[in-house]
């Protein structure tokens, strides 16, 4: 469709995410063991799908009727790649530095609409990169799939990396009588009605109590702080072992 038209209308979800009340960014971090090679990074990005994909190489425009469109443009890498040469002040280590920067970007200035709505922050001293993209470009899953499609296997540069499929184990009790099916359907309808009524009642009458940690006006603009949680695979396996009918994930 981008090849046929110079301008592509935003999807309903995209129009929602560009509203001032729901102006959301997707932020992710990539760390390396080796120092960042700036020239190589620029060369790879300039020749990658990141610079050629229609959505990521289009600017957001609004016509005289207030309708939003994506318009194809040329990518200026110098406006998208931002260098942080000095160490992040107050950071304990590289991971903490990335958390501080991402927390700042979460309430940072809005994207400039005269360029595609994404940027790459390179923390030279901390050997990591932080990607910030507007939610109108896609959600976390679609952007992750996009970046995965840009990668290649180390042992075979011609192939994309693969992920093992999710294995779901379900018990099958054989054939089910018509009475059991009707009973499950009846419970489904009943609990759906109960949950809908409960949701509407909470929206209309229930309010959070004011506490010492309740946010005031403009709380969405207050400074943010990110911390990193680490989980041991062995601990997750123990939980999975003692909880029946859990989903097995393998990567």
Automatic annotation (TrEMBL):
Keyword terms = Acyltransferase, Transferase
| Entries under Pfam families matching the protein | WS_DGAT_cat
Provide any one GO MF term from the record.
Answer: diacylglycerol O-acyltransferase activity
Concerning InterPro entries, the annotation shows: CAT-like_dom_sf, O-acyltransferase_WSD1-like, O-acyltransferase_WSD1_N
Task: Report the catalytic activity.
Answer: an acyl-CoA + a 1,2-diacyl-sn-glycerol = a triacyl-sn-glycerol + CoA
Task: State which pathway it belongs to.
Answer: Lipid metabolism; Glycerolipid metabolism; triacylglycerol biosynthesis
| A Gene Ontology biological process term | triglyceride biosynthetic process
Q: Name one GO cellular component term.
A: plasma membrane
Residue limits of the O-acyltransferase WSD1-like N-terminal domain?
65-167
Under which EC number(s) is this enzyme classified? 2.3.1.20
- The name this protein goes by in its record: diacylglycerol O-acyltransferase
């Amino acid at each position: 469709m981008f090849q046929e038209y110079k301008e592509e209308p935003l999807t309903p979800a995209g129009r929602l995410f560009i509203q001032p009340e729901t102006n959301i960014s997707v932020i992710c971090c990539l760390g390396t063991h080796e120092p960042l090679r700036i020239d190589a990074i620029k060369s790879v990005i300039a020749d990658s799908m990141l610079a050629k994909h229609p959505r990521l190489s289009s600017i957001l425009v609004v016509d005289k009727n207030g309708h939003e469109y994506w318009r194809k443009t040329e990518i200026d890498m110098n406006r998208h790649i931002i260098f942080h040469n000095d160490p992040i002040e107050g950071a304990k280590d590289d991971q903490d530095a990335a958390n501080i920067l991402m927390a700042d970007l979460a309430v940072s200035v809005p994207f400039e609409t005269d360029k595609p709505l994404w940027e790459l922050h390179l923390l030279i001293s901390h050997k990591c990169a932080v990607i910030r993209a507007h939610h109108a470009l896609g959600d976390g899953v679609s952007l992750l799939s996009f970046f995965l499609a840009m990668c290649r296997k180390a042992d075979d540069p011609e192939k994309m990396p693969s992920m093992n499929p999710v294995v779901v184990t379900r018990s099958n009790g054989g054939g089910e009588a018509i009475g059991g099916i009707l009973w499950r359907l009846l419970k489904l309808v009943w609990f759906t009605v109960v949950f809908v009524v409960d949701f509407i009642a909470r929206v209309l009458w229930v309010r959070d109590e004011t506490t010492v940690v309740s946010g005031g006006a403009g709380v969405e603009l207050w400074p943010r702080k990110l911390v990193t949680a680490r989980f041991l695979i062995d601990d997750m396996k123990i939980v999975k072992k003692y909880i029946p009918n859990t989903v097995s994930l393998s990567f």
